[in-house]
Amino acid sequence: MGCCNRRCGLLAGAVFGALLAVLGGILIPAGNSIIEGTVKKEAVIENGTTAYDNWVSTGAAVYRQFWFFDVTNPVEIVENGATPVVVQRGPYTYKTRYLPKENVTFTNFTVTFLLPLGAIFEPSMSVGPEEDHITVLNLAVAGAYSLTPTTLHGVVERLIKSTNSSLFQRRSVKELLWGYYDPMLKVTTGLFSPYNGTYDGPYTVSTGEDDIANVGKILSWRGEESLTFWDDKYCNMINGTDASSFAPFVDKRKPLYFFSSDICRSVSASYEDSLDLKGIKVYRYTLQPNTLAAPNVNPDNQCYCRDPKVTKNCTMAGVLDISSCQGNKPIYISLPHFLYGSPSLRESVLGLSPSPEHHDTFMDVEPITGFTLRFAKRIQVNMMYGPSKVITVLKQVKDYTIFPIVWLNETAALDHETADMFKEELFSRVETLEVLQLSLLGIGVSIFVLCFTMYCVVRCRHSPGKFV
Protein backbone atom coordinates (compact mmCIF):
# COMPACT_ATOMS: atom_id res chain seq x y z
CA MET A 1 0.00 0.00 0.00
CA GLY A 2 2.83 2.44 0.90
CA CYS A 3 4.59 1.68 -2.37
CA CYS A 4 1.39 2.32 -4.28
CA ASN A 5 0.93 5.60 -2.45
CA ARG A 6 4.47 6.65 -3.33
CA ARG A 7 3.95 5.77 -6.97
CA CYS A 8 0.63 7.57 -7.06
CA GLY A 9 2.11 10.61 -5.32
CA LEU A 10 5.06 10.75 -7.68
CA LEU A 11 2.77 10.28 -10.68
CA ALA A 12 0.53 13.06 -9.39
CA GLY A 13 3.60 15.27 -8.89
CA ALA A 14 4.72 14.58 -12.45
CA VAL A 15 1.26 15.47 -13.73
CA PHE A 16 1.25 18.62 -11.60
CA GLY A 17 4.69 19.59 -12.91
CA ALA A 18 3.57 18.99 -16.46
CA LEU A 19 0.52 21.18 -15.88
CA LEU A 20 2.72 23.98 -14.48
CA ALA A 21 5.01 23.70 -17.48
CA VAL A 22 2.07 23.75 -19.86
CA LEU A 23 0.65 26.76 -18.00
CA GLY A 24 3.98 28.55 -18.28
CA GLY A 25 4.14 27.70 -21.97
CA ILE A 26 0.60 28.96 -22.50
CA LEU A 27 1.37 32.19 -20.65
CA ILE A 28 4.22 33.02 -23.05
CA PRO A 29 2.03 33.70 -26.11
CA ALA A 30 -0.87 34.84 -23.91
CA GLY A 31 1.42 37.19 -21.99
CA ASN A 32 2.94 38.51 -25.17
CA SER A 33 -0.55 39.15 -26.47
CA ILE A 34 -1.44 41.01 -23.27
CA ILE A 35 1.72 43.11 -23.49
CA GLU A 36 1.12 43.85 -27.16
CA GLY A 37 -2.49 44.83 -26.53
CA THR A 38 -1.53 47.09 -23.60
CA VAL A 39 1.25 48.82 -25.54
CA LYS A 40 -0.95 49.37 -28.58
CA LYS A 41 -3.71 50.79 -26.41
CA GLU A 42 -1.33 53.19 -24.66
CA ALA A 43 0.38 54.20 -27.92
CA VAL A 44 -2.82 55.63 -29.46
CA ILE A 45 -2.95 59.43 -29.46
CA GLU A 46 -6.18 60.02 -27.56
CA ASN A 47 -7.03 61.59 -24.23
CA GLY A 48 -6.01 59.39 -21.32
CA THR A 49 -3.24 57.36 -22.95
CA THR A 50 0.47 57.52 -22.18
CA ALA A 51 1.17 58.57 -25.76
CA TYR A 52 -1.26 61.48 -25.54
CA ASP A 53 0.20 62.77 -22.28
CA ASN A 54 3.70 62.77 -23.79
CA TRP A 55 2.49 64.08 -27.15
CA VAL A 56 0.37 67.08 -26.16
CA SER A 57 2.72 68.44 -23.50
CA THR A 58 6.24 69.73 -23.94
CA GLY A 59 7.82 66.57 -22.50
CA ALA A 60 11.57 66.64 -21.96
CA ALA A 61 13.32 69.98 -22.26
CA VAL A 62 14.50 70.63 -25.82
CA TYR A 63 17.55 72.82 -26.38
CA ARG A 64 19.02 74.39 -29.49
CA GLN A 65 22.75 74.96 -29.33
CA PHE A 66 24.28 77.25 -31.96
CA TRP A 67 27.89 77.31 -33.14
CA PHE A 68 28.83 80.22 -35.42
CA PHE A 69 31.62 80.28 -37.99
CA ASP A 70 33.56 83.45 -37.18
CA VAL A 71 35.42 84.74 -40.27
CA THR A 72 38.99 85.70 -39.40
CA ASN A 73 40.11 87.27 -42.71
CA PRO A 74 37.17 89.22 -44.18
CA VAL A 75 39.30 92.05 -45.66
CA GLU A 76 41.71 89.67 -47.42
CA ILE A 77 38.79 87.76 -48.94
CA VAL A 78 37.19 90.86 -50.44
CA GLU A 79 40.35 92.68 -51.51
CA ASN A 80 42.64 89.82 -52.54
CA GLY A 81 40.36 86.86 -53.16
CA ALA A 82 41.90 84.91 -50.26
CA THR A 83 40.37 81.61 -49.21
CA PRO A 84 38.04 82.26 -46.24
CA VAL A 85 39.23 81.02 -42.85
CA VAL A 86 36.69 80.43 -40.08
CA VAL A 87 36.81 79.60 -36.38
CA GLN A 88 33.91 77.89 -34.64
CA ARG A 89 32.39 79.81 -31.70
CA GLY A 90 29.76 78.41 -29.39
CA PRO A 91 27.61 77.00 -28.10
CA TYR A 92 25.00 79.67 -27.55
CA THR A 93 22.08 77.73 -26.10
CA TYR A 94 18.32 78.36 -26.14
CA LYS A 95 15.48 76.41 -24.65
CA THR A 96 12.93 75.70 -27.38
CA ARG A 97 9.69 73.73 -27.85
CA TYR A 98 8.67 74.51 -24.29
CA LEU A 99 5.10 75.42 -25.28
CA PRO A 100 2.37 72.75 -25.56
CA LYS A 101 0.60 72.11 -28.85
CA GLU A 102 -2.29 74.46 -29.63
CA ASN A 103 -5.62 74.21 -31.45
CA VAL A 104 -5.68 70.43 -30.92
CA THR A 105 -8.70 69.03 -32.80
CA PHE A 106 -9.66 65.34 -33.17
CA THR A 107 -11.59 64.17 -36.25
CA ASN A 108 -12.08 60.62 -37.60
CA PHE A 109 -8.93 58.98 -36.22
CA THR A 110 -6.82 62.09 -36.96
CA VAL A 111 -5.68 65.03 -34.89
CA THR A 112 -4.79 68.52 -36.15
CA PHE A 113 -2.62 70.96 -34.20
CA LEU A 114 -0.25 73.92 -34.29
CA LEU A 115 3.27 73.77 -32.91
CA PRO A 116 4.13 77.11 -31.25
CA LEU A 117 7.73 78.27 -31.56
CA GLY A 118 9.77 80.10 -28.95
CA ALA A 119 13.34 80.43 -27.72
CA ILE A 120 14.68 81.39 -24.29
CA PHE A 121 18.40 82.09 -23.90
CA GLU A 122 20.22 79.86 -21.38
CA PRO A 123 23.36 81.73 -20.20
CA SER A 124 24.57 78.84 -18.01
CA MET A 125 24.73 76.57 -21.07
CA SER A 126 26.44 79.13 -23.32
CA VAL A 127 30.02 80.30 -23.82
CA GLY A 128 29.01 83.94 -23.61
CA PRO A 129 26.08 86.37 -23.72
CA GLU A 130 23.78 86.98 -26.67
CA GLU A 131 25.58 90.27 -27.16
CA ASP A 132 28.78 88.54 -28.32
CA HIS A 133 29.70 89.76 -31.80
CA ILE A 134 30.54 87.43 -34.69
CA THR A 135 31.89 88.19 -38.18
CA VAL A 136 29.79 86.28 -40.70
CA LEU A 137 28.58 86.45 -44.27
CA ASN A 138 26.33 89.44 -44.96
CA LEU A 139 22.88 87.88 -45.41
CA ALA A 140 21.55 90.85 -47.37
CA VAL A 141 24.44 90.96 -49.86
CA ALA A 142 24.36 87.19 -50.49
CA GLY A 143 20.58 87.27 -50.82
CA ALA A 144 20.55 90.25 -53.21
CA TYR A 145 23.26 88.64 -55.35
CA SER A 146 21.12 85.55 -55.96
CA LEU A 147 17.70 87.20 -56.16
CA THR A 148 18.74 89.93 -58.59
CA PRO A 149 19.31 89.11 -62.28
CA THR A 150 22.87 89.67 -63.50
CA THR A 151 21.68 92.55 -65.67
CA LEU A 152 20.59 94.41 -62.52
CA HIS A 153 23.73 93.82 -60.45
CA GLY A 154 24.50 97.50 -60.93
CA VAL A 155 21.52 98.28 -58.67
CA VAL A 156 22.92 95.94 -56.03
CA GLU A 157 26.32 97.63 -56.31
CA ARG A 158 24.78 101.07 -55.67
CA LEU A 159 22.82 99.75 -52.66
CA ILE A 160 25.97 98.21 -51.17
CA LYS A 161 27.98 101.41 -51.59
CA SER A 162 25.23 103.75 -50.37
CA THR A 163 24.84 101.76 -47.13
CA ASN A 164 28.57 101.05 -46.68
CA SER A 165 27.84 97.31 -46.70
CA SER A 166 30.32 94.55 -47.55
CA LEU A 167 30.44 90.81 -48.17
CA PHE A 168 30.85 90.22 -44.44
CA GLN A 169 29.31 91.87 -41.40
CA ARG A 170 29.87 91.87 -37.65
CA ARG A 171 26.74 91.48 -35.52
CA SER A 172 25.62 90.08 -32.20
CA VAL A 173 24.46 86.50 -31.76
CA LYS A 174 20.98 87.73 -30.89
CA GLU A 175 20.76 89.86 -34.03
CA LEU A 176 21.99 87.12 -36.35
CA LEU A 177 19.58 84.53 -34.99
CA TRP A 178 16.40 86.48 -34.30
CA GLY A 179 16.63 89.55 -36.49
CA TYR A 180 18.08 93.03 -37.02
CA TYR A 181 17.21 96.00 -39.20
CA ASP A 182 19.26 95.76 -42.36
CA PRO A 183 20.14 99.17 -43.87
CA MET A 184 20.52 97.76 -47.37
CA LEU A 185 17.21 95.87 -47.57
CA LYS A 186 15.47 98.26 -45.15
CA VAL A 187 13.68 95.34 -43.48
CA THR A 188 14.25 93.14 -40.45
CA THR A 189 16.28 90.08 -41.38
CA GLY A 190 17.90 87.20 -39.51
CA LEU A 191 18.61 83.50 -39.81
CA PHE A 192 15.43 82.52 -37.92
CA SER A 193 13.44 85.74 -38.09
CA PRO A 194 10.61 85.81 -37.21
CA TYR A 195 10.57 83.02 -34.61
CA ASN A 196 9.15 83.82 -31.16
CA GLY A 197 5.37 83.99 -31.33
CA THR A 198 5.17 82.07 -34.62
CA TYR A 199 3.91 78.55 -35.38
CA ASP A 200 4.91 75.49 -37.35
CA GLY A 201 2.01 73.82 -39.09
CA PRO A 202 -0.80 73.14 -38.89
CA TYR A 203 -0.11 69.41 -38.87
CA THR A 204 -2.67 66.65 -39.24
CA VAL A 205 -1.51 63.22 -38.03
CA SER A 206 -3.04 59.79 -37.53
CA THR A 207 -4.02 58.94 -33.95
CA GLY A 208 -3.44 55.23 -34.61
CA GLU A 209 -6.86 54.31 -33.25
CA ASP A 210 -7.91 52.61 -36.48
CA ASP A 211 -4.42 51.25 -37.29
CA ILE A 212 -1.63 51.46 -34.75
CA ALA A 213 0.95 51.07 -37.54
CA ASN A 214 0.05 54.62 -38.64
CA VAL A 215 0.19 56.31 -35.24
CA GLY A 216 1.82 59.75 -35.50
CA LYS A 217 2.07 59.52 -39.28
CA ILE A 218 1.82 63.00 -40.83
CA LEU A 219 -1.16 63.16 -43.18
CA SER A 220 -0.86 66.83 -44.07
CA TRP A 221 1.25 69.90 -43.32
CA ARG A 222 -0.04 73.43 -43.79
CA GLY A 223 -3.22 71.89 -45.16
CA GLU A 224 -1.47 69.99 -47.96
CA GLU A 225 -0.90 66.25 -48.26
CA SER A 226 2.33 66.81 -50.17
CA LEU A 227 4.95 69.53 -50.50
CA THR A 228 5.14 72.10 -53.27
CA PHE A 229 8.83 72.99 -53.02
CA TRP A 230 10.21 70.42 -55.42
CA ASP A 231 9.32 69.83 -59.06
CA ASP A 232 8.83 66.13 -58.47
CA LYS A 233 6.19 63.91 -56.89
CA TYR A 234 8.77 61.77 -55.08
CA CYS A 235 10.62 64.68 -53.47
CA ASN A 236 7.32 66.33 -52.51
CA MET A 237 6.15 63.29 -50.51
CA ILE A 238 5.53 63.71 -46.77
CA ASN A 239 6.66 60.43 -45.22
CA GLY A 240 6.53 59.15 -41.66
CA THR A 241 6.13 60.99 -38.37
CA ASP A 242 7.77 64.07 -36.86
CA ALA A 243 10.41 61.74 -35.31
CA SER A 244 9.16 62.22 -31.73
CA SER A 245 7.65 58.72 -31.87
CA PHE A 246 7.02 55.84 -34.23
CA ALA A 247 4.69 52.85 -34.37
CA PRO A 248 5.28 50.41 -31.47
CA PHE A 249 7.32 47.21 -31.81
CA VAL A 250 10.02 48.72 -33.96
CA ASP A 251 11.69 46.37 -36.44
CA LYS A 252 15.35 47.35 -36.57
CA ARG A 253 15.69 45.76 -40.00
CA LYS A 254 13.54 48.48 -41.50
CA PRO A 255 14.35 52.21 -41.78
CA LEU A 256 12.32 54.84 -39.94
CA TYR A 257 10.86 57.73 -41.95
CA PHE A 258 10.19 61.25 -40.70
CA PHE A 259 9.46 64.71 -42.04
CA SER A 260 11.38 67.82 -40.97
CA SER A 261 9.97 71.24 -41.76
CA ASP A 262 13.43 72.72 -41.03
CA ILE A 263 14.82 71.14 -44.19
CA CYS A 264 11.55 71.04 -46.16
CA ARG A 265 11.70 67.33 -46.93
CA SER A 266 11.27 63.80 -45.62
CA VAL A 267 14.26 61.65 -44.73
CA SER A 268 14.94 58.18 -43.35
CA ALA A 269 17.17 56.78 -40.64
CA SER A 270 18.60 53.29 -40.28
CA TYR A 271 19.46 51.16 -37.24
CA GLU A 272 23.04 51.50 -36.05
CA ASP A 273 23.32 50.00 -32.57
CA SER A 274 21.51 48.97 -29.38
CA LEU A 275 22.30 51.11 -26.34
CA ASP A 276 21.38 51.45 -22.68
CA LEU A 277 19.71 54.75 -21.75
CA LYS A 278 19.23 55.06 -17.99
CA GLY A 279 18.45 51.35 -17.73
CA ILE A 280 16.23 51.27 -20.84
CA LYS A 281 17.23 49.46 -24.02
CA VAL A 282 17.03 51.75 -27.06
CA TYR A 283 17.81 51.48 -30.75
CA ARG A 284 20.19 54.11 -32.13
CA TYR A 285 19.10 55.35 -35.57
CA THR A 286 21.17 57.66 -37.76
CA LEU A 287 20.53 59.31 -41.10
CA GLN A 288 21.20 56.96 -43.99
CA PRO A 289 24.52 57.77 -45.74
CA ASN A 290 22.79 58.42 -49.06
CA THR A 291 20.45 61.09 -47.63
CA LEU A 292 22.51 63.98 -49.01
CA ALA A 293 24.43 62.01 -51.61
CA ALA A 294 24.95 63.48 -55.06
CA PRO A 295 22.37 62.40 -57.66
CA ASN A 296 24.99 60.45 -59.60
CA VAL A 297 25.37 58.28 -56.45
CA ASN A 298 21.73 58.33 -55.30
CA PRO A 299 19.43 58.99 -58.30
CA ASP A 300 16.50 59.61 -55.92
CA ASN A 301 18.15 62.93 -55.04
CA GLN A 302 18.05 64.24 -58.60
CA CYS A 303 14.85 66.18 -57.89
CA TYR A 304 16.59 68.02 -55.02
CA CYS A 305 19.22 69.49 -57.36
CA ARG A 306 17.88 72.90 -58.36
CA ASP A 307 20.97 74.72 -59.59
CA PRO A 308 23.44 72.60 -61.62
CA LYS A 309 25.69 75.65 -62.02
CA VAL A 310 26.36 75.94 -58.28
CA THR A 311 26.45 72.18 -57.58
CA LYS A 312 28.86 71.39 -60.40
CA ASN A 313 26.27 69.76 -62.63
CA CYS A 314 24.56 68.08 -59.63
CA THR A 315 27.70 66.13 -58.63
CA MET A 316 28.14 67.90 -55.28
CA ALA A 317 27.31 65.81 -52.20
CA GLY A 318 26.38 66.92 -48.72
CA VAL A 319 24.23 70.01 -49.32
CA LEU A 320 20.53 70.64 -49.95
CA ASP A 321 19.31 73.76 -51.71
CA ILE A 322 16.16 74.84 -49.80
CA SER A 323 15.76 78.22 -51.48
CA SER A 324 12.39 77.11 -52.87
CA CYS A 325 10.95 76.95 -49.36
CA GLN A 326 12.80 80.04 -48.08
CA GLY A 327 11.47 82.73 -50.40
CA ASN A 328 14.22 81.98 -52.95
CA LYS A 329 16.94 83.06 -50.52
CA PRO A 330 20.16 81.18 -51.40
CA ILE A 331 20.09 78.93 -48.34
CA TYR A 332 21.76 75.52 -48.39
CA ILE A 333 21.36 72.97 -45.59
CA SER A 334 24.05 70.44 -44.70
CA LEU A 335 25.36 68.44 -41.79
CA PRO A 336 27.76 70.43 -39.57
CA HIS A 337 31.20 71.09 -41.01
CA PHE A 338 29.95 69.57 -44.29
CA LEU A 339 30.07 66.06 -42.83
CA TYR A 340 29.83 63.50 -45.68
CA GLY A 341 30.01 66.40 -48.15
CA SER A 342 32.20 66.78 -51.24
CA PRO A 343 35.84 67.74 -50.46
CA SER A 344 35.44 70.93 -52.50
CA LEU A 345 33.07 72.31 -49.85
CA ARG A 346 35.79 72.18 -47.19
CA GLU A 347 38.50 73.31 -49.59
CA SER A 348 36.65 76.55 -50.39
CA VAL A 349 36.36 77.46 -46.68
CA LEU A 350 39.21 76.56 -44.32
CA GLY A 351 38.86 75.71 -40.64
CA LEU A 352 36.26 72.93 -40.82
CA SER A 353 36.69 69.57 -39.06
CA PRO A 354 33.76 67.18 -39.62
CA SER A 355 33.26 64.42 -37.06
CA PRO A 356 30.46 61.79 -37.10
CA GLU A 357 30.51 61.69 -33.28
CA HIS A 358 29.80 65.40 -32.92
CA HIS A 359 28.03 66.27 -36.17
CA ASP A 360 25.80 63.34 -37.14
CA THR A 361 22.06 63.32 -36.45
CA PHE A 362 20.67 60.45 -34.36
CA MET A 363 17.56 59.21 -32.54
CA ASP A 364 17.40 56.71 -29.67
CA VAL A 365 14.09 54.87 -29.99
CA GLU A 366 12.60 52.54 -27.36
CA PRO A 367 11.60 49.54 -29.52
CA ILE A 368 8.48 48.35 -27.64
CA THR A 369 6.62 51.67 -27.50
CA GLY A 370 8.30 53.39 -30.46
CA PHE A 371 8.93 56.51 -28.35
CA THR A 372 12.06 58.56 -29.12
CA LEU A 373 13.75 58.97 -25.73
CA ARG A 374 16.82 60.90 -26.85
CA PHE A 375 17.79 62.68 -30.03
CA ALA A 376 20.24 65.13 -31.56
CA LYS A 377 19.20 66.91 -34.75
CA ARG A 378 22.27 68.61 -36.20
CA ILE A 379 21.92 71.00 -39.12
CA GLN A 380 24.21 73.58 -40.68
CA VAL A 381 22.87 76.74 -42.35
CA ASN A 382 24.87 77.96 -45.33
CA MET A 383 24.37 80.71 -47.91
CA MET A 384 25.69 80.91 -51.45
CA TYR A 385 27.45 83.73 -53.24
CA GLY A 386 29.50 83.83 -56.43
CA PRO A 387 31.63 85.95 -58.74
CA SER A 388 30.46 89.23 -60.27
CA LYS A 389 32.01 91.66 -62.73
CA VAL A 390 29.86 94.51 -61.40
CA ILE A 391 29.55 94.10 -57.63
CA THR A 392 32.85 95.30 -56.17
CA VAL A 393 32.87 93.11 -53.05
CA LEU A 394 32.47 90.02 -55.28
CA LYS A 395 34.96 90.86 -58.05
CA GLN A 396 37.75 88.81 -56.44
CA VAL A 397 35.51 85.75 -55.91
CA LYS A 398 36.68 82.95 -58.20
CA ASP A 399 33.78 80.49 -58.00
CA TYR A 400 30.40 79.87 -56.44
CA THR A 401 30.84 79.36 -52.71
CA ILE A 402 28.47 77.68 -50.26
CA PHE A 403 29.50 79.51 -47.12
CA PRO A 404 28.85 78.12 -43.57
CA ILE A 405 27.22 80.56 -41.17
CA VAL A 406 26.02 78.54 -38.18
CA TRP A 407 25.25 74.99 -37.19
CA LEU A 408 22.75 73.92 -34.59
CA ASN A 409 22.22 70.92 -32.38
CA GLU A 410 18.60 70.49 -31.30
CA THR A 411 18.69 67.92 -28.56
CA ALA A 412 16.64 66.37 -25.76
CA ALA A 413 16.77 63.29 -23.53
CA LEU A 414 14.46 61.87 -20.91
CA ASP A 415 15.48 62.65 -17.34
CA HIS A 416 15.99 60.13 -14.52
CA GLU A 417 12.52 60.72 -13.07
CA THR A 418 10.81 60.04 -16.38
CA ALA A 419 13.05 57.03 -16.99
CA ASP A 420 12.11 55.54 -13.61
CA MET A 421 8.42 56.13 -14.31
CA PHE A 422 8.79 54.60 -17.77
CA LYS A 423 10.49 51.51 -16.35
CA GLU A 424 7.97 51.15 -13.52
CA GLU A 425 4.84 51.53 -15.63
CA LEU A 426 5.92 49.45 -18.60
CA PHE A 427 9.00 47.34 -18.07
CA SER A 428 8.25 46.25 -14.48
CA ARG A 429 5.01 44.68 -15.74
CA VAL A 430 6.73 43.08 -18.70
CA GLU A 431 9.54 41.74 -16.52
CA THR A 432 7.09 40.45 -13.88
CA LEU A 433 5.12 38.60 -16.53
CA GLU A 434 8.28 37.19 -18.11
CA VAL A 435 9.57 36.02 -14.71
CA LEU A 436 6.21 34.37 -13.97
CA GLN A 437 6.20 32.66 -17.37
CA LEU A 438 9.73 31.34 -17.06
CA SER A 439 9.31 30.40 -13.39
CA LEU A 440 6.18 28.34 -14.05
CA LEU A 441 7.82 26.70 -17.05
CA GLY A 442 11.08 26.00 -15.21
CA ILE A 443 9.50 24.80 -11.97
CA GLY A 444 6.95 22.71 -13.85
CA VAL A 445 9.57 20.98 -15.98
CA SER A 446 11.78 20.39 -12.93
CA ILE A 447 8.92 18.87 -10.89
CA PHE A 448 7.81 16.75 -13.83
CA VAL A 449 11.31 15.39 -14.55
CA LEU A 450 12.05 14.74 -10.86
CA CYS A 451 8.72 13.08 -10.05
CA PHE A 452 8.56 11.06 -13.24
CA THR A 453 12.16 9.85 -12.74
CA MET A 454 11.43 8.85 -9.13
CA TYR A 455 8.20 7.20 -10.22
CA CYS A 456 10.08 5.11 -12.79
CA VAL A 457 12.73 4.13 -10.18
CA VAL A 458 10.09 3.03 -7.64
CA ARG A 459 8.13 1.19 -10.33
CA CYS A 460 11.24 -0.71 -11.51
CA ARG A 461 12.21 -1.75 -7.98
CA HIS A 462 8.84 -3.36 -7.34
CA SER A 463 8.25 -4.74 -10.82
CA PRO A 464 11.43 -6.60 -11.93
CA GLY A 465 11.75 -6.92 -15.67
CA LYS A 466 9.16 -4.26 -16.35
CA PHE A 467 9.71 -0.63 -17.06
CA VAL A 468 6.10 0.50 -16.45
Automatic annotation (TrEMBL):
<keyword id="KW-0564">Palmitate</keyword>
<dbReference type="GO" id="GO:0007155">
    <property type="term" value="P:cell adhesion"/>
</dbReference>
<dbReference type="InterPro" id="IPR002159">
    <property type="entry name" value="CD36_fam"/>
</dbReference>
<dbReference type="GO" id="GO:0042953">
    <property type="term" value="P:lipoprotein transport"/>
</dbReference>
<feature type="disulfide bond">
    <location>
        <begin position="264"/>
        <end position="325"/>
    </location>
</feature>
<dbReference type="GO" id="GO:0030169">
    <property type="term" value="F:low-density lipoprotein particle binding"/>
</dbReference>
<keyword id="KW-0812">Transmembrane</keyword>
<keyword id="KW-0333">Golgi apparatus</keyword>
<feature type="disulfide bond">
    <location>
        <begin position="305"/>
        <end position="314"/>
    </location>
</feature>
<dbReference type="GO" id="GO:0005041">
    <property type="term" value="F:low-density lipoprotein particle receptor activity"/>
</dbReference>
<dbReference type="GO" id="GO:0006898">
    <property type="term" value="P:receptor-mediated endocytosis"/>
</dbReference>
<keyword id="KW-0449">Lipoprotein</keyword>
<dbReference type="GO" id="GO:0034383">
    <property type="term" value="P:low-density lipoprotein particle clearance"/>
</dbReference>
<feature type="transmembrane region" description="Helical">
    <location>
        <begin position="435"/>
        <end position="458"/>
    </location>
</feature>
<keyword id="KW-0675">Receptor</keyword>
<comment type="similarity">
    <text>Belongs to the CD36 family.</text>
</comment>
<protein>
    <recommendedName>
        <fullName>Platelet glycoprotein 4</fullName>
    </recommendedName>
</protein>
<dbReference type="GO" id="GO:0005901">
    <property type="term" value="C:caveola"/>
</dbReference>
<keyword id="KW-1003">Cell membrane</keyword>
<keyword id="KW-1017">Isopeptide bond</keyword>
<dbReference type="Pfam" id="PF01130">
    <property type="entry name" value="CD36"/>
</dbReference>
<dbReference type="GO" id="GO:0005044">
    <property type="term" value="F:scavenger receptor activity"/>
</dbReference>
<keyword id="KW-0130">Cell adhesion</keyword>
<keyword id="KW-0813">Transport</keyword>
<dbReference type="GO" id="GO:0016324">
    <property type="term" value="C:apical plasma membrane"/>
</dbReference>
<dbReference type="GO" id="GO:0009986">
    <property type="term" value="C:cell surface"/>
</dbReference>
<dbReference type="GO" id="GO:0019915">
    <property type="term" value="P:lipid storage"/>
</dbReference>
<dbReference type="GO" id="GO:0150094">
    <property type="term" value="P:amyloid-beta clearance by cellular catabolic process"/>
</dbReference>
<dbReference type="GO" id="GO:0044539">
    <property type="term" value="P:long-chain fatty acid import into cell"/>
</dbReference>
<feature type="disulfide bond">
    <location>
        <begin position="235"/>
        <end position="303"/>
    </location>
</feature>
<keyword id="KW-0472">Membrane</keyword>
<dbReference type="GO" id="GO:0005794">
    <property type="term" value="C:Golgi apparatus"/>
</dbReference>
<keyword id="KW-1133">Transmembrane helix</keyword>
<keyword id="KW-0832">Ubl conjugation</keyword>
<keyword id="KW-1015">Disulfide bond</keyword>
<keyword id="KW-0445">Lipid transport</keyword>
<keyword id="KW-0325">Glycoprotein</keyword>
<dbReference type="InterPro" id="IPR005428">
    <property type="entry name" value="CD36/SCARB1/SNMP1"/>
</dbReference>
